[in-house]
Design a protein that fits this description.
130 residues, mainly alpha, 98% helix
Amino acid sequence: MNSIILGVAALAIVVTAVVFIYFLMEIKKTIINLEKTVKNIEESLMPTMEELPKTIVSVKNFSDNMTDITDDVKALSGSLRGMATNISNITNSIERIARVTAGEVSGIKAGFDAALSVIARHYTKRVNKQ
């Protein structure tokens, strides 16, 4: 009976060893496949990694250009604001000149009317005296 138990124990140990060896072989295959996959991923990422510095430089250049454009737009906006202020000042000056001129023209017109009235009275009196 002892020999049967020893036989079954030996068989169990052999089966366990075989299963263990099978699992080790499967783990080895999985590790090999994993290494191949990692290598493929690295190879496919290499061009991307090589282009990354160029892309970063391009993005920086674009950003710098946008900063320059923004500065130019700010300067243009300031210039337009200054022009609008100058145009407003010119408009106000023209309106003042128009008001003053209208008053002076009214005064000159009244002066001409008065002068013509005096001249007309003077000549009508002379004509009436003769």
